[in-house]
């Protein structure tokens, strides 16, 4: 037993040394030989600001030997935020955010980025608890080409834990499954999950047909880093899990939408059309019409494709307060929203007697998340895959149907909703979109 314990400790030590070596290699690869800041020094900066939130610049100026300034990014309802940003040696950039509520510090966080190729690459995030003790951290590991590969969770000592999230894994091998081709434009999908892998559209050589128009590479993995690269969102896999379950014979082309440059949307649609997509699921939208002008022009040119688009989840009438692309009124766009199982508009879902075509039950829909865990999700985003799956099944039965014929067939399946205050959508609702009979 003693030998077993010693052997276990030795293994733990080897794992720790290996993790440290990986961390050192990560910083070295990212900075291309430059000396990166030590994590301990960054933690010291964060704690110095945390312990004097009313006057963080004084303590930071003492610590780093240079003047820093504070930006007040927002306040209200007793909550104030102070953001301190400054550059450090070897091209590094530090941003510290202090959240103060009613005079009490609630949280302090630090993000560290290094410049590579003319732009900053996020490397490290650290958070404290209200007592200014380091609570946790997250580290992004890059490959030699500067592409983010792993999100590593750090403990309170900022040492790596066993938790590692892939950010850009290789696509598993596979063959084309055949079936009706449906494209999904979202934050990507986790194409390593077996249920999704099995339905991926492939070339004759077995290569994934989908594309990442965010990073402009061939791995449309489900990561939305718009809010934070250290706390990314994962939306596309949830949506795709509903799509492949309710249309089990579809051929899925996943796309990661081009958030950095929405003028690329015509490229996305050209790619989808060239690869046989007749249905495009788009659980996307925003208030900014200018972001979607390129999509509007491109979608109008692809009259043979039916786009299933989310109405949004702002709890508002989009006839009066538009959401795009739902409010464009394109003939080959089907705008959908979420209802309760009793045929009324779901709380928080958008509506519009002119702008929204139909609603389907999309509250507490069973989903699989990017980790492969089962759960439930709600909202008009999940009405999209339910209706897109219905369209795919109808098209499988009627492969010569045009987009207008497919849209008309779906309209015929709708019935009156049960709203007390009058119609919320153009056509009504479909009680069970999984039943196309």
Task: Give an overview in words.
- The structure is a single chain.
- The protein is of the alpha/beta class.
- It folds into two domains: 2-166, no CATH class; 181-429, 3-Layer(aba) Sandwich (Rossmann fold), CATH 3.40.50.
- The chain has nine helices and 18 strands.
- It has helices at 2-31, 39-50, 56-64, 194-197, 236-246, 265-274, 293-301, 380-397, 403-412; strands at residues 69-76, 79-88, 92-101, 104-116, 119-128, 134-142, 148-154, 160-166, 181-186, 211-212, 251-256, 279-282, 306-310, 333-339, 358-361, 365-368, 374-377, 428-429.
- The chain has an eight-stranded antiparallel sheet, covered by helices on one side.
- Strand 10, helix 5 and strand 11 (251-256) form a beta-alpha-beta unit.
- Helix 2 (39-50) packs antiparallel against helix 3 and helix 6 runs parallel beside helix 7 (293-301).
- The radius of gyration is 25 Å and the shape is globular.
Task: Kindly list the characteristics that best describe this protein.
disordered N terminus, 8-stranded antiparallel beta sheet, 437 residues, 2 domains, alpha/beta, Rossmann fold, 18 strands
Question: What's the helix and strand layout?
Answer:
Layout: H1 2-31, H2 39-50, H3 56-64, E1 69-76, E2 79-88, E3 92-101, E4 104-116, E5 119-128, E6 134-142, E7 148-154, E8 160-166, E9 181-186, H4 194-197, E10 211-212, H5 236-246, E11 251-256, H6 265-274, E12 279-282, H7 293-301, E13 306-310, E14 333-339, E15 358-361, E16 365-368, E17 374-377, H8 380-397, H9 403-412, E18 428-429
Parallel strand pairs: 9-11, 9-12, 10-11, 12-13, 13-14, 14-15, 15-18
Antiparallel strand pairs: 1-2, 2-3, 3-4, 4-5, 5-6, 6-7, 7-8, 16-17
Helix pairs in contact: 2-3, 5-8, 6-7, 8-9
């Amino acid at each position: 037993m003693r030998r077993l314990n010693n052997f276990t400790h030795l293994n733990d030590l080897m794992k720790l040394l290996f993790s440290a070596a990986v961390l050192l290699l990560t910083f070295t690869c990212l900075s291309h030989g430059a000396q990166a800041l030590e994590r301990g020094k960054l933690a010291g900066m964060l704690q110095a600001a945390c312990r004097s939130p009313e006057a963080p610049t004084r303590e930071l100026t003492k610590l780093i030997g240079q003047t820093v300034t504070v930006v007040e990014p927002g306040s209200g309802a007793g909550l104030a935020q102070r953001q301190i940003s400054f550059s450090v040696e070897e091209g590094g950039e530090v941003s510290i955010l202090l959240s103060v509520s009613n005079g009490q510090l609630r949280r302090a966080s630090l993000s560290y980025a290094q410049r590579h190729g003319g732009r900053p690459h996020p490397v490290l995030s650290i958070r404290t608890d209200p007592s200014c003790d380091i609570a946790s951290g997250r580290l992004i590991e890059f490959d030699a080409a500067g592409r983010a590969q792993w999100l590593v969770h750090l403990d309170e000592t900022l040492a790596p834990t066993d938790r590692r999230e892939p950010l850009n894994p290789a696509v598993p091998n596979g063959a084309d499954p055949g079936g009706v081709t449906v494209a999904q434009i979202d934050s990507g999908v986790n194409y390593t999950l077996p249920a999704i892998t099995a339905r991926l559209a492939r070339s004759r050589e077995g290569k994934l047909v989908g594309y990442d128009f965010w990073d402009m590479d061939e791995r449309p993995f489900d990561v939305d880093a718009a809010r934070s690269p250290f706390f990314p969102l994962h939306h596309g896999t949830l949506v795709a899990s509903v799509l492949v379950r309710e249309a089990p014979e579809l051929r899925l082309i996943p796309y990661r939408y081009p958030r950095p440059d929405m003028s690329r949307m015509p490229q996305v649609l050209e790619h989808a059309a060239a690869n046989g997509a007749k249905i495009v699921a788009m659980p996307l939208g925003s208030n900014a019409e200018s972001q979607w002008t390129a999509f509007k022009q491109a979608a109008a040119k692809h009259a043979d494709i039916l786009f299933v688009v989310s109405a949004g989840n702002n709890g508002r009438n989009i006839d009066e307060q538009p959401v795009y692309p739902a409010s464009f009124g394109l003939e080959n766009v089907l705008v959908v929203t979420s209802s309760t199982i009793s045929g009324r508009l779901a709380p928080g879902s958008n509506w519009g007697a002119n702008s929204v075509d139909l609603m389907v039950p999309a509250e507490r829909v069973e989903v699989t998340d990017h980790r492969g865990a089962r759960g439930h999700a709600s909202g008009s985003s999940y009405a999209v895959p339910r209706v897109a799956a219905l369209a795919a099944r109808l098209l499988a039965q009627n492969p010569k149907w045009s987009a207008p014929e497919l849209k008309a067939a779906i309209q015929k399946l709708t019935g009156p909703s049960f709203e007390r205050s009058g119609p919320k959508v153009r056509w009504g609702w479909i009680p069970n979109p999984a039943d196309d009979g």
